[in-house]
Amino acid sequence: MGESVEAVQQVDVVVVGLGVGGEEVGGRLAAAGLSVVGVEHNLVGGECPYWGCIPTKIMVRAGSALAEARRIPQLAGTSTVTPDWAPVAKRIRDEATDDWNDKVAVDRFTGKGGTFVRGRATIVGPGRVKVGEQVYAAGRGLVIATGTAAVIPPIDGLAGTPYWTNREAVEVTTLPASLLILGGGAIGCEFAQAFARFGVQVTIIEGSPRVLAAEEPESSAVAAEVLAADGVTVRLGVHAERVDHDGGFTVTLTDGSTVTGERLLIATGRSARLTDLGLETVGLDPQARFLGTDDRMRAADGIWAVGDVTGHGAFTHMAMYEADIAVRDILGQGGPGADYRALPRVTFLDPEIGAVGLTEKQARDAGLDVRVGHVPLSYTSRGFIHGPGNEGFIKVIADAGRGVLVGASTAGPSGGEMIGALAVAVHAEVPLSTLASQIWAYPTFHRGIGDALKALA
Q: What percent of the chain clears pLDDT 90, i.e. is strictly above it?
């Protein structure tokens, strides 16, 4: 039997998933006068404000404050530092997440004219989405913004144990004495340093030969150095073979050794939430790793996808960028399409590690005429002035054939801010000759960009 006529509600757009990208698309389309239904089964706002960017950076900020206080004896006198997790947990609960309540976000969406539906959406055909017993027929189209979930590897013994993902790690009110972390990427490293600075004995298990394996080797080296200084043990080139839980966790590694910890955090990557959406009813593959899109964020006729599900990086700024493109396309406003050449990313360690565009290896693999400029941050005047905590560098990657930068990495106390200037250079394809004649303020960390550019020669 088909749905009754009464069960179908005609609307302009249905947005499936109201994380950062979905909320932006839905809110802007509703504010523009379209009838928009936004469907979310969890919290409006998604991973970023509740279990990602915002609370984790509160944790990082707290850990960095402790580290800076511990540097006082090298700079300005004496200090006694006593870590206390309670203010961090309280700030996350009370100020950042409203105790994981999304009323403010829901009101923000409905205040723009959107209709909010709490539940799980299933696509049941072109332009048709079912939530519970209600079917919505979207005249303009569907927007898929269902985000990603933590990948749980199929390790013997892991299933059924009380392991953590980023969500449990963010919600913790009492710290464990020890923590094992599977995965040495940005998420694993950020949690490792933050918890270690509060006295937790942390061990990272990473299958690659280095942490932050997707970034420059120099970035990995800085991360390894500062993690070791904070007391983090890093096991590289090994994988977890078995997990046992009996009060605490014991992880058997592929080299035959074991590591133990009170808690176990899984940080082995993210995968797009695409199963059980009914994608097959609109000709899309529900088993695909990501939804492929064109430069207007179209995944199929009448279907747009934005954010993590597109596979261009699990970043809030990427979701917002793609949301803007989708909104303009749906409203027929035109404007520039998606261009991922200058995608910036930051790992919020102390020091912060920023990157934009291609790594040196990616540039060489692409067959470019590569030139590299590099300067240690401690060699710059501001790095010298800063003293303790000045670990870092600036690295620029140029395509000599075209005379432009195609990538860069920064590390330092302002690493995530320094990458901003370099992102502009990569995005706008500023000629190297123009950059070479730029006046760089003294004494700043970013003045080191000028030194790195000189090193290109």
A: 98
Q: What angle do CA 177, 183, 188 make, to 5 degrees?
A: 60
**Residue range 169-180, pLDDT digits in tens:** 999 999 999 999
Domain ranges of the chain: 5-45+102-150+271-330, 166-268, 344-454
Any idea what the Cα angle at residue 310 is, between residues 276 and 127, rounded to 5°?
A: 55
- pLDDT beneath 50: ranges in the chain: 1, 3-4, 6
* Mean pLDDT over each residue of the chain, to the nearest integer: 96
pLDDT of res. 131 = 97
Q: So what's the pLDDT on residue 7? A: 80
Which residue, among 98, 166, 133, has the nearest Cα to 8 in the 3D structure? 133
CB atoms near residue 329 (< 10 Å):
19
User: Residue 205: beta bridge partners?
Assistant: 182, 235
pLDDT tens digits along 13-50: 999 999 999 999 999 999 999 999 999 999 999 999 99
Same fold, 5-45+102-150+271-330 and 166-268: yes
CA distance 389 to 186: 19
- The fourth-level CATH superfamily of domain 5-45+102-150+271-330 is FAD/NAD(P)-binding domain (3.50.50.60)
What is the second-level CATH architecture of the domain 166-268?
3-Layer(bba) Sandwich (3.50)
82-118: string of b/e by CB count within 10 Å (b at 16+)?
Answer: eeebeebbebbbeebbeebebeebbeebeebbbbbbb
